Amino acid sequence: MGGGEAPQEVSGKGLTHFNRAGRAKMVDVSEKPATRREAVAHGTVRVAPDTLALIKQGRIAKGDVLAVAQVAGVMAAKQTFSLIPMCHPLPLTGIDLAFDLDEERNLVEIRATVKTTAQTGVEMEALTAVSVAALTVYDMCKAVDKEMVIGEIYLLRKSGGKSGEYVRKAGLTGSD
Questions:
Q1: Phi-psi domain of 25 (left: phi exceeds 0; alpha: psi -120 through 50; beta: other)
Q2: Any catalytic annotation for residue 50?
Q3: What pLDDT does residue 173 have?
Q4: What's the rounded Cα separation, in Å, for the pair 21 and 65?
Q5: Are 173 and 154 in contact (CB under 8 A)?
Q6: How far is CA 168 from each of CA 42, 46, 62, 155, 157, rounded to the nearest angstrom?
Q7: Which residues of the chain have pLDDT under 50?
Q8: Which residue is catalytic, options 50, 64, 102, 139?
Q9: What is the per-residue pLDDT for 15?
Q10: How far is CA 55 from CA 50, 59, 83, in A?
């Protein structure tokens, strides 16, 4: 198929991300009603006990790890559409990140909540916020701990839109 050929419709339910030529496209949501939507994502960074102590005490040389990761996560959520090819630019109405330092498991736990009133959901924005916050924790601490492990990034819940409410079932990750 050359670039000048007319695309043909690809049949089959669930193939909304393909054009008539079978190539990827961004879904047209212009006919969908705008609804309130929220997504919450989770992620972890496993660190050495000494690293966790330094984070907690605010003694990492690059600065306040959690404050910088917070800002990075917010910025990332706002830029998701420029990073993930088929994501729509959305008017985000709320972005928040929360951090928990789990000293028993040597984890920095990250939770991102993203909200909008729009025609499509914010799951990718929440997941991107958590991912970039985790990468920022790594970047801030890499001088003292190169053994860190970023992991368990997943959607906890989402609401709104045609598919409605989703809540992750317990036991679907290694830490549940």
A1: beta
A2: no
A3: 64
A4: 47
A5: yes
A6: 11, 22, 35, 7, 6
A7: 1-13, 176
A8: 139
A9: 52
A10: 9, 6, 29
Residues 6+ apart with CB under 8 A from 146: none
Q: How many CB atoms lie within 10 A of CB 42?
A: 21
Q: Give me the pLDDT at residue 10, please.
A: 41
Candidates 126, 120, 124, 125; CA nearest to 161 is 120
Please give the model's pTM, rounded to 2 decimal places: 0.88
Q: According to the model, what pLDDT value does residue 76 have? A: 98
**CA atoms within 13 A of residue 19's CA, in its CB half-sphere:** 10
Measured CA angle at 157 (ends 152, 160), to 5 deg: 145
Asked if residue 34 lies in contact with residue 119, where contact means CB atoms within 8 angstroms, the answer is yes
Query: What per-residue confidence (pLDDT) applies to 16?
Result: 75
